[in-house]
Specification:
Blueprint (H helix, E strand, L loop, with lengths): L5 H39 L2 H13 L6 H20 L10 H6 L6
Length: 107
């Protein structure tokens, strides 16, 4: 069994993420269409309800400390770096996902 070369692995990676991006666009678009009738009255009925809704949807999710934000960003970048560099470090060109899932990309 011959394993796929790096070029084919990169094409497979890009194709996978194209599917993921399209799915994300579909999910966000669906949520914005389905939940718009429920969220719009929260901003237009009373000033107090609008203020609370804005606080819970906008302010509260972004009220993290700088240290927490930096730690999250470092974790994301480190994970992505390990994922991208792992096929270059072994003969079978397996990514960390392939090791976890037990999959192989063959030609």
């Amino acid at each position: 069994m011959t394993y796929a070369p790096l070029k084919i692995r990169i094409y497979a990676f890009l194709f996978d993420y194209l599917i993921i991006v399209l799915y994300g666009i579909f999910v966000v678009g669906t949520i914005s269409v389905i939940f718009r009738p429920f969220i719009t009255p929260l901003f237009s009925n009373s000033p107090a309800a609008a203020e609370l809704t804005g606080f819970f949807l906008v302010t509260l999710p972004t009220a993290l400390s700088d240290t927490a934000v930096y730690m999250i960003l470092i974790a994301v970048y480190l994970t992505a770096f390990i994922y991208f560099i792992s096929p270059l470090m072994n003969k079978k060109r397996k990514t960390t996902y392939d090791w976890i899932a037990g999959t192989k990309v063959v030609r």
